[in-house]
Amino acid sequence: MERTKADEVEHTEQTELIGADAQPVRASNRTGNRTSNRSMGYYSAADEEKRRGVRRMKITATGLLLLVAVIYVLAKWASHAGAGAWAGYVAAAAEAGMVGALADWFAVTALFRHPLGLRIPHTAIIPTKKDQLGVSLGEFVGENFLSREVVRGRLRAVGIGSRLGAWLAVPEHADRVTAELSTALRGALAVLRDSDVQAIVGEAINRRADSAEIAPRIGKMLEGIVAQGGHKRAVDLICVRAHDWLVLHNDQVMDAVQGGAPGWTPRFVDKRVGERVYKELLRFVTEMRDMPAHPARGALDRFLTDFAADLQSDTDTRGRVENLKREVLGRGEVQDIIASAWSSVRQMIVSAAEDERSELRLRVRASLLSLGQRMSTEPNLQSKIDGWVEDAAVYVVTTYRDEITSLITDTVAGWDPEHTTRKIEAHIGRDLQFIRINGTVVGSLAGLVIYTVSRALGA
To answer: Which Pfam families does UniProt cross-reference here (predicted)?
Structure first.
C-alpha cells in the first residue's frame, strides 16, 4: 500500500535524533486513537516547516556544545603545555559552558521525553503529565476567563448594543438578517411534522374554546352591531333575496298554500286564497325592502337587542349557547377544519418567507432598520441590550463553567501522548533550543567570572 505524506513524516520523526541523544520516537499503532485525535496527530505543511526549524536549532545548540567541548580540550592541553594563564581562563569558561549546555539540554529534553531513554523521575513531563496539564489548563481558563467579573467587564467594554445597532442600521445588513431569518423559518417549518403541529393546534383551540364561555362575548358583539346599525345591511340583503325568490317561485308558493287547504273547500276558493296569500306576502317583503322604518324592522331590532341582553345575562340562554358550542366543536367536519388550519397557515408563512417583496419580509426588514437606528442613538436602549447580553453570558458561564472547562480537560485527555508531544515540540521547540544556546553562553560567562574572582582572591 502506498504510504501517505503523513506516514512519511511520522517515520521521519521516529528516527530523528533529539539533540545529542539518539533516542527514537516510538510510533503509536493505535489506529482508533489516531483517527479520533487527528487534530493532534496530523501534521500540516506549516507544522512540518516548524519541525524543520526545530531540527536546525537543535543542530545549532548541539554544535555550540561540541564547540565549547573542543575549546575546553584545547585549552586544557595548552595549559599543560605551558601556554600561560590565559589557557586557564579559557578552560574555565568552556567547562562552565559545557555544564550550562548539558543542564539546559537535560531540562529541555525532560519536557518531552526521558533523556537518553533513562526513566529519571520528573522527566517526559508533557506525555506523562498531559492529563494533569489539561486539568490545570481547564481550571486556569475557568478561573481567569470564565469568571462573572471578567465576562461582564469584557462585554461592557465591547459595547454590543451600539455596535449591533450601527450594523443593523445599514440596509444591506438588514436585508441579510431578513434573508437569514427567512431561511431559518423555512427550515424550522420543514422540520416540523404537520401531524404533530395539527394535533397541538387542534388541542389548543379546543381547550381554549371549551374553557371560555362565548355567549357573553357574542351578546356584547351583537349589542354593538345593533347599536351601530350594522345588522341593517344583512336585513336589506335578506329582504332583497326573499323578494326575488318570491317573484321567481310564485307558482310554488301558491301551490304550497293550496295544498294546505282542507279537502272539502272548492278548488277555485283554494286558488283565490293562494293568490291572496302570495300577494300579501310579496307586499310585506317589498315594503320591508323599501321602507327602512317598517314596523317589522323595528320589531327585528328589538328582538336582536333583547337577544343580545339575554346572551349576556340570562342563564338559560347562555347554557343553551354553550351546549350548542360543544355540539358544533364535536362534529368531525369542524375538527377537520381546525386540523387543516395549520396547513393553510404553514403554506402562507412559507410563501411569505420566500417572497422578497412580501409584507412579512418588508415588515421584518423595516423593524430591523428601526431597531438598529434606535440602538445606535438611544443610550437607554443600548444599556438595556448590553445588560441582557451580559446577564445571558454570565448565566451561561456560571451555569455551564464546569462543562466548558471539561471540554478542555477531556479533549486534552483524549490526545495521544506521543503525537501531542511532537505537536507541542514543533510549535515551541525552536524557542526552547535558544535556552540551550543561552545556557551555553551564560554558563561560559559565569564560569569565566567565577574563575577570575577565584584567581583574584587566591592571589
So the answer is: DUF445 (PF04286)
pLDDT tier, 176 (very low <50, low <70, confident <90, very high otherwise): very high
Our count of domains for the chain comes to: 2
Q: State the pLDDT confidence band at 364, using cuts at 50, 70 and 90.
A: very high
Q: Are residues 12 and 105 in the same domain?
A: yes
- What is the rounded CA–CA span in Å between residue 187 and residue 182? 8
Check residue 121 and give its pLDDT. 86
* Domain finish residue from 287, 304, 330: 330
Q: pLDDT-derived band of residue 333, with 50, 70 and 90 as boundaries?
A: confident
Q: Quick one: average pLDDT of 174-186?
A: 91
Within-domain flag for 273: yes
Q: What percent of the chain shows pLDDT beyond 90?
A: 21
End of a domain among 330, 351, 372? Answer: 330
pLDDT of 194-239, one tens digit each?
777 777 777 777 777 777 788 888 889 988 988 888 888 888 898 8
In a domain, 439, yes or no: yes
Whether residue 260 has pLDDT greater than 70? no
pTM, two decimals, is 0.48
Domain that holds residue 283: 195-330
- Is 170 domain-assigned? no
Q: Cβ contacts of residue 447 below 8 Å, gap of 6+?
A: 92, 93, 94, 95, 96, 97, 99
